[in-house]
């Protein structure tokens, strides 16, 4: 099972087992630095980031972002905002992701695989790769 | 040129910006004129797009973008050459697309045409298997296996994933 995040016109899949929870954006507590809002849960604050279609960090949360997905991380989860979110079963949907071609790889790309989904090209990323990407660019 | 026993067929490719190169005749499967391309973020400028071909997701390599080293105005006519390559003989055959400025041209090349790359075309050296002279222009023969290899990616980025 995968969690599909839709934002800025892109489709991003993350393995469900690497997702801590899905929250609504109105639950964020405050913003302390440009581009980062915070979510407080059980006394732990999780940073929540906004990405654009180039996977660059946005400085403000776009109005369409209604949800955020918290990725499992230590010591606290890390969030990514999105416009839409849903569960997708690759087997049921007959989706067959393919590895990103070697020639397209860059050291800082979190994209591991590509998959055609609803006439779009969707990206498959691990939670760890996304968190690394966010930490490098924040 | 008329085919003879010492000549081989090849495809002459025009990448735009005055860049021409050749590949073996057996290395080109098909030419597409209106494929639907998808841009993928966090990818090299010279290979930012993919498209779907026979249920496979293929990379689109833009050699002019690699060699000219700046974003080039998209070509009006989108021509994609579907190429076959093998990283080495023990690896499976794979497909990839080359973005072209015009339709590939079928040519014959003979041994007598072989020559060295001139110094002002040194930029081809990393991907050129050899070269030949045609109408007083030196044409490199591209090593597709290297272009799409882990080795080339590591050369560009200093590490392989």
How many domain modules of chain A?
Answer: 1
Most strands sheet of chain B: 6 strands, mixed
Averaged pLDDT of chain A = 91
Inertia-based shape of chain B:
globular
CATH topology-level fold name of chain A = OB fold (Dihydrolipoamide Acetyltransferase, E2P)
Structural class of chain A: mainly beta
Main sheet properties of chain A: 6 strands, mixed
Low-confidence stretches of chain A: none
The topology string of helices and strands of chain B comes to EEEEEEHEEEEEHH
Number of distinct helices of chain A: 1
The CATH top-level class label of chain A: Mainly Beta
Strand content of chain B: 35-45%
Percentage of β-strand residues of chain A: over 45%
- What is the overall number of helices of chain B? 3
The CATH homologous superfamily name of chain A equals: CheA-289, Domain 4
Q: Tell me the CATH architecture of chain A.
A: Beta Barrel
Shape of chain A: globular
What key phrases describe this protein's structure?
heterodimer; A: 138 residues; mainly beta; OB fold (Dihydrolipoamide Acetyltransferase, E2P); six-stranded mixed beta sheet; 1 helix; 8% helix; B: 161 residues; three-stranded antiparallel beta sheet
